[in-house]
Structure to design on (713 residues):
């Protein structure tokens, strides 16, 4: 069992870095996407809305194939690793935009009014009043997405990135002990997601306490 | 429109993509047929009063949910034959994605069962219904109605998950698209059309799920 | 029921004589003027062509049946609900309602208006993630650009006055409803407003807790704050206000001193409304 653990765990670096980079990219790109989806200008709003829906509707592995095989024939040719980061970064942007939106909607509309009645402008209200309250809803949602993303990144093995799943697959072909090896790989994913699960649970509990009071 | 379509791919290739889409939909249906009852069963087992049953079911749920669907699929398709259990690609897909679906939806069912007011069980008991028939006739129908929007939402994830079957050479939509791409070298075109097909199914269904959700929360 | 109200703080004057009203200097200076204010909400004419004036230091109560447009009118005064037409003067600042793009009031005009007008909401709307003290200092720092020390000094002074000096470091969720509403009053007063708007400040509170809030409002009235109060507390309105406005279906049905409106209303509709609420 231990003889398999060594080779598989070499893939942890790729799995974790792709997840982390895509998550950071998505958290940043999600903000302008959210802003666009709430724009007063209809074409901008409709385009952003369509982009968010499309990014989430097409399976991630299909996006990876488009980036990796589809663009390879055109001018820009991407290696598997950057294709994975960019693909999952864009998908994350769509999910994060929705998570941010849910955070804003969770704050009572009257909090905007209370801020405005005190003479604060919209940006000030967002920064000091609504944002800090929305964060409490955003963090558990973002942690849940990060866990899902970690597992979704397993498909990067199909385009040849040496992540946990890729190494497990080749180890299984080499040794013929696939059952054990894939169980081990699954266990590694579960262990990797534990810290995120704790963040989600901890903030979720705090959220419930805050709301209950 | 049709001129553009003909310019992009020829008719045989469309047929090939459509047959792939049908396989994807068929796998989705079979997975739901196997996974949803499993999820319901797991939810009941997790809520069981017997500690070993409850913990065993919970452990199963956490493991089947915790590993990537692709890893579970590889485990079933590549791992089991090495133990002497050989499955067709379709059977492996339905088993692996079904286990995954069961684990995920058990959480949805569990929350829905809890959301049925306690008074309903008490009212049923006061009418002399046994626990089993109270569950079947009173609690479960209400829980299903509560769970419906999320179950519809989850079925989209199952549909998207069928694309993973590319890895086990099941001739679903992505496999067919890739195959056309590898013979014509027009990957971008054919993959984009496949993506549009996924979106054409997923977006309306997710809007339907959203509508169900809003209708539900408006009623409460 | 109001006879049972026991103010938290000792008050100089709680007898049968209407508190404060007669002792305040006759202002004469105009604080609020609404001219032809109208507002439509979701296809419903919530406020119809309302014109009103209120002198500095006076208290106006706005009463009327549910859905009459009282809240909407109040929210038109500080443009939380920008009127569709008409204009609003507060303390020399005029803001015209013009909804046409490019002609709507500028952000700076609204800021100018809102810093002169404090508002107290039915559901308090304290900021739950900030301490009581921070709730009161935030806008002083961001809007009036006071430094932290000045803002805190002013905040503690106001919390003292509403009887909550010891709650400065608590969070809103740790305060009772009555305490939260008094913090909300302190929060609004911290910007040194010239006009205070109250939208049913006690209707989310048990009578006992509402009394704490009403006694703070009495104190304010005695000190000469100009106030517009939407309320269902008829006894309070009768005692404290200089004028009473009765609204019905978005329009002003009747306006006059409390003695007249409560005892000898002109309109049959007012009489029916008063009978319904006073009989309870
Ligand atoms: N956002 C909205 N969309 C549509 N109609 C609205 C909206 N807000 C208020 N209204 C309607 O406008 C009318 C006036 O509402 P408003 O809240 O000002 O009444 P009110 O006198 O304050 O009543 P209450 O005593 O119940 O608070 C009501 O008929 C209400 O239904
Ligand atoms: Mg109101």
């Amino acid at each position: 069992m231990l003889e398999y653990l060594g080779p598989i765990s070499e893939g942890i670096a790729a799995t974790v870095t792709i997840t982390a980079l895509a998550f950071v990219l998505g958290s940043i790109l999600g903000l302008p996407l959210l802003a666009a989806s709430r724009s007063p200008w209809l074409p901008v709003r409709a385009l952003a809305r369509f982009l968010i829906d499309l990014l989430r509707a097409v399976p991630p592995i299909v996006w990876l194939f488009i980036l990796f095989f589809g663009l390879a024939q055109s001018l820009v040719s991407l290696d598997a690793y950057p294709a994975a980061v960019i693909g999952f970064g864009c998908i994350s942007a769509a999910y994060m935009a929705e998570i941010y939106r849910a955070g804003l909607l969770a704050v009572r509309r009257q909090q905007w009014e209370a801020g405005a009645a005190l003479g604060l402008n919209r940006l000030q209200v967002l920064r000091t009043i609504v944002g800090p309250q929305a964060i409490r809803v955003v963090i558990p949602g973002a942690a849940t997405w990060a866990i899902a993303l970690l597992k979704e990144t397993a498909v990067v093995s199909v385009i040849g990135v040496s992540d946990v799943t890729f190494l497990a697959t080749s180890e299984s072909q080499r040794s013929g002990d696939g059952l054990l090896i894939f169980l081990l790989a699954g266990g590694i994913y579960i262990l990797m997601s534990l810290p995120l699960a704790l963040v989600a649970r901890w903030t979720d509990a705090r959220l419930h306490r805050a709301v209950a009071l | 429109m049709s001129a553009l379509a003909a310019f992009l791919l020829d008719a045989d290739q469309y047929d090939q993509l459509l047959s792939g889409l049908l396989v994807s939909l068929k796998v989705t249906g079979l997975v739901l047929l196997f996974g949803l009852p499993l999820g319901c069963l797991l939810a009941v087992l997790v809520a069981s009063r017997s500690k070993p049953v409850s913990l065993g079911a919970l452990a199963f749920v956490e493991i089947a949910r915790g590993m990537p669907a692709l890893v579970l699929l590889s485990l079933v398709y590549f791992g089991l034959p090495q133990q002497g259990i050989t499955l067709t690609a379709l059977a492996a897909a339905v088993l692996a994605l079904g286990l995954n679906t069961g684990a995920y939806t058990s959480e949805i069912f569990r929350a829905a069962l809890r959301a049925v007011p306690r008074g309903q069980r008490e009212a049923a008991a006061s009418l002399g219904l046994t626990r089993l028939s109270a569950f079947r006739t009173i609690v479960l129908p209400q829980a299903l109605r509560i769970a419906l929007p999320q179950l519809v939402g989850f079925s989209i994830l199952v549909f998207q998950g069928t694309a993973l079957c590319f890895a086990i050479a099941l001739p679903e939509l992505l496999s067919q698209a890739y195959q056309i791409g590898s013979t014509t070298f027009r990957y971008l075109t054919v993959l984009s059309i496949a993506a549009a097909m996924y979106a054409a199914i997923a977006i309306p269904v997710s809007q339907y799920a959203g509508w169900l959700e809003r209708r539900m929360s408006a009623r409460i | 029921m109001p006879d049972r109200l026991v103010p938290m703080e000792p008050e100089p004057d709680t007898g049968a004589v209407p508190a404060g009203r007669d002792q305040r200097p006759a202002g004469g200076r105009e604080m609020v003027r609404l001219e032809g204010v109208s507002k439509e909400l979701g296809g419903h004419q919530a406020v119809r062509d309302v014109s009103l004036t209120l002198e500095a230091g006076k208290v106006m109560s706005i009463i009327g049946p549910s859905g009459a447009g009282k809240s909407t009118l109040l929210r038109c005064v500080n443009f939380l609900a920008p009127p569709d037409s008409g204009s609003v003067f507060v303390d020399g600042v005029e803001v015209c309602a013009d909804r046409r793009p490019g002609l709507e009031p500028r952000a700076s005009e609204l800021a100018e208006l809102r810093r002169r007008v404090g508002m107290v909401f039915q559901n308090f709307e304290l900021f739950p993630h900030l301490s009581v003290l921070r709730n009161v200092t935030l806008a002083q720092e961001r809007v009036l650009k006071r430094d932290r020390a000045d803002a805190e000094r002013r905040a503690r002074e106001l919390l003292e006055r509403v009887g909550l000096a010891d709650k400065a470091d608590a969070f809103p969720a740790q305060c009772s409803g009555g305490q939260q509403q008094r913090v909300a009053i302190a929060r609004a007063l911290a910007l040194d407003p010239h006009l205070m708007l109250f939208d049913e400040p006690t209707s989310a509170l048990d009578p006992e807790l509402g009394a704490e809030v009403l006694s703070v409002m009495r104190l304010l009235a005695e000190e000469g704050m100009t106030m517009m109060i939407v309320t269902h507390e008829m006894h309070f309105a009768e005692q404290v206000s200089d004028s009473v406005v009765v609204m019905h279906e978005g329009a002003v049905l009747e306006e006059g001193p409390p003695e007249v409106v409560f005892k000898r209303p002109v309109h049959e509709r007012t009489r029916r409304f008063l009978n319904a609420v006073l009989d309870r």
